[in-house]
């Protein structure tokens, strides 16, 4: 397990925080091209991310909150899990109710494609990072991403993410991520940008 030191104002998410995690993340991704292609409606974002936080990332991953302002969902690559049968049914039901026509199929296709493109080497995976709209431009993104990356550096572990919004490429590059490739999560979808970050040597930190 990584030794992550959180600054004042940040904490580990607990089991009861799944709704807050989903609400913050849903708001953060409201203008995200890939997620809008998958779900079709912004109404689906918060319930989908809430369920993923509840059933996958809080129990199996590394989730952080900065009050009600921002949230991150990480996971070590060798601890990544699939949704259980009941949770999958719940997610499909949510997509049918909240998403546009075909959202469940697009989500399944995107998930399969992302899994196929995922690097095999052990790494720290950043699933989501996001802030409330009112908190953008205040340096909160840096505060959210830095503790886990510092821990990865200390452990000599690389990191990986799929950037779903070109507007965020510069932010990720400023934290050491480099583009691996672009790939489409489904036919006609906006591209995802696979990004990789090698750990910084300790004497360079």
Automatic annotation (TrEMBL):
Residues 114-203 form the N-acetyltransferase domain. InterPro entries: Acyl_CoA_acyltransferase (IPR016181), GNAT_dom (IPR000182), Trichothecene_AcTrans (IPR052523). This is Acetyltransferase. One of its GO terms (molecular function) is acyltransferase activity, transferring groups other than amino-acyl groups. Transmembrane segments: none annotated. Gene3D superfamilies: 3.40.630.30. The keyword Kinase does not apply. The keyword NADP does not apply. It comes from Hyphomonas polymorpha PS728. Keywords: Transferase.
């Amino acid at each position: 397990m990584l030794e992550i030191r959180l600054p004042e104002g940040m904490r580990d998410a607990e089991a009861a925080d799944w709704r807050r995690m989903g609400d913050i993340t849903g708001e953060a991704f409201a203008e995200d091209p890939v997620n809008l292609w998958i779900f079709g409606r912004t109404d689906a974002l918060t319930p989908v991310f809430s369920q993923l936080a509840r059933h996958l990332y809080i129990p199996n991953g590394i989730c952080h909150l900065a009050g009600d302002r921002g949230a991150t969902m990480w996971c070590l690559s060798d601890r990544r899990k699939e949704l259980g049968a009941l949770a999958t049914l719940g997610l499909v039901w949510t997509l049918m109710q909240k998403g546009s026509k075909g959202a469940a199929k697009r989500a399944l296709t995107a998930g399969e494609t992302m899994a196929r493109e995922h690097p095999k080497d052990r790494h720290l995976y950043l699933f989501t990072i996001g802030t409330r709209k009112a908190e953008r431009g205040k340096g909160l993104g840096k505060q959210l991403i830095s503790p886990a990356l510092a821990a990865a550096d200390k452990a000599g572990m690389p990191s990986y993410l799929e950037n779903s919004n070109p507007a965020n490429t510069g932010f990720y590059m400023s934290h050491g991520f480099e583009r691996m490739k672009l790939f489409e999560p489904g036919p006609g979808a906006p591209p995802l940008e696979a990004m990789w970050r090698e750990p910084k040597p300790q004497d360079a930190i």
